[in-house]
Structures are given as structure tokens and as C-alpha cells.
Amino acid sequence: MRMMLLEEYDMKKKKNKYSTTLLLCLLSCVVLVQLIPLLNGISNSSDSIYRGLRNDPPSTYTLDLDSYSKLVSTGAETYESDVFQSGGYNWTLTLYPSGNTRDGGADHISLYLKPYNTESLPQGWEILTKISFFVQNKPRNKYLVVEEKEVQRFNAAKTEWGIGKLIQLSTLSNEKNGYLVGDKCQFGAEVLVLKPNPNSEQLTFFDKGNYTWRMLHFSRLEESKFVYSDEFAVAGSNWKVRVAPKGDGDGWRNYLSIYLELSETTAQSLRVNEKVYVRASIVVRNTNPSKNIQRQLGKWYSREVPSLGFQQFMSLAELHSPSKGYLVGDRLTLEIHFHLISKTHYFP
């Protein structure tokens, strides 16, 4: 009895599996049936030309034909659009309603883009563009997109670019495909003008720079919360050293605090995301160089972080001990050695 139940369960399981597979196949067929009319008669993408469908309309210009057949009946080989702008230049579209046979466009719609009034452009002009052409499929609210994968260069030797085989006439004229509805159709273009390096930046690193600060009458300076050095320039930025003789923050009353800071003018001149990297040694000199106290700094400075350093650089007890050799004749000597410092240049 148990074996029979298991066999019956396995049969139901297999049946459900086959049913699910059949349902997926049917759904796939439905999707293909819906897509075939959209793609019917449209050449596949090549190595240089992309063809596909999208929901969004062209963002630069559209050309609506209220009666495609009447345009053809005029016998006009081409129809040229009005002038429109994109990227600071004037453009026009040229439509071949019966195809441009000189560009292999027999039995197709052909569409071209060209800059307008090139005689007014300066000598040696060149315009770099990314171009997309469109054909509206109104019933399905989609657009056939045909675009060049590479950048197109317009210049005095090449004043026009386009697609000879935009869409087959047989595909367009069959209303079931959705491109020509009630003798109406729409073509369009997106023109993105590429300006080579309109804005750029260059990050440069320098590997040297030194500053020495001899703090005279140090005992008198202890009356101040902070003491500042003169400003000095390294790698195109102005700097200063800030010292708290009695300590600052966690070093208050027990440690000497030392900071390396961007000058206020330099900090305020930095751009929103501009940073300055510094790898430097801050040194308190001793009469015996082997006993110099040195701390390494390796940080990025910015408008928000113009000051970096050490709240507990060295203990005040050690600093003020006559036998230690740091204060000589009431003078303290600090050195800043820049090992690596960055500078960003912006263009233009």
C-alpha cells in the first residue's frame, strides 16, 4: 500500500513538472509573437550599427509625417527638416522616403544628419558626435533605435552621416507592424555632441619641501592657547604650523600639541571635492640629533579638514626637563619635512 502511494506521488510530481515546463514554453511563445511584428524586416545589429527597441522617445528632434503616402506621391527624393540645435551647433535631418539608392537604401527608408551652414564655422572645424535615429511604433509605445556604435566626426570633408537602410519599406507600410498607422509615422534623432576634454584635472605629486620654525622665548608663548608660525609655501599651497604650548584636547596640560595646517586662504580656495595629500615628518629638535622626536603624518587635507596633527606629540615634562636638551636658551626648534605632497590642476 505504501509503495502504491509513493508511486502515485511521484507520478503527480512529474506531471506538475511537465505542466510547469509547458506553461513556460507557452509564455515564451507569446513574448516572441509580440516581438516579431516589431522586429520583422529590421536588419540585425552589425559590428558598427546597433538596432534595438526602447520605451523613451528621442530627446533631440522628431519629424512627424501626417501622410507618408502623400509625401511619396510628390516625387521628392528627399525631405529636409527645419534647423534644430544640439550641443551648441545647428543641425538638419534629411529623409529619403523611398530610400537612398546611392547608399544601398533601395526599398528602405534612409535618414541622415548634417550640420547646418558649415560655412560659418571656423577653419579646420570638427564636431564629434554620438548619433541615434528613431522610428516610432505607436501602438506598442516603443521606438526602433538605430545608432552608430562609434563616434562620428563631422568636418569639411564629411558634412553628413546617416543610415541608408533605416527600416524596410515593406515593414513600414504593413500597419500590423505598428510603424505606419493611418498613413502617419514619426522619425527622430538624438545628437550628443562630444567636446574633447572640456573639463579636466591633473593630479601631481611632489616629493620634497622643508620648513624650520625656531620658537624664541618659548616660556612667554605658554601664556597663549595656540601659537602660529609664519605662512610658507610648498608645492603651490600655503601652510602654517600651529602649536599648543600647554597641550590641546587629550593632550591638555600633559603634552605638547602640534598641527600642520593649510592656510585659511588655501583651504578656502580648494574646490568642493579637492584634496591635498601630505606625507610629512614633524620633528622637535634636540641638541643631540639622535634624540630628536619625530612623528609621521600621512593624510588627505580638504576644505572640511584643513588641520591635522598630534594632540600628544611629546610630554611637557620631557620638553621642560633641562637635562633632555629640547629647550635651549628658551628656544624650541620645529622642523617639517615633506616627503610627498599633492597638487591638483584644473582645466580650463
CA-based shape: rod-shaped
The string of secondary-structure elements, in order, is HEEHEEEEEEEEHEEEHEEEEHEEEHE
- Report the radius of gyration as a whole number of Å: 37 Å
CATH class of the largest domain: Mainly Beta
Which structural class should the secondary elements be placed in? alpha+beta
Model description:
The radius of gyration is 37 Å and the shape is rod-shaped. The chain is of the alpha+beta class. The protein contains six helices and 21 strands. It is 18% helix and 43% strand. Residues 1-6 and 25-38 have low confidence and may be disordered. The strands form four sheets. Strands 1, 2, 7, 8, 9 and 11 form a six-stranded antiparallel beta sheet that branches. Strands 3, 4, 5, 6 and 10 form a five-stranded antiparallel beta sheet that branches. Strands 12, 13, 18, 19 and 21 form a five-stranded antiparallel beta sheet that branches. Residues 58-191, 208-338 form the MATH domain.
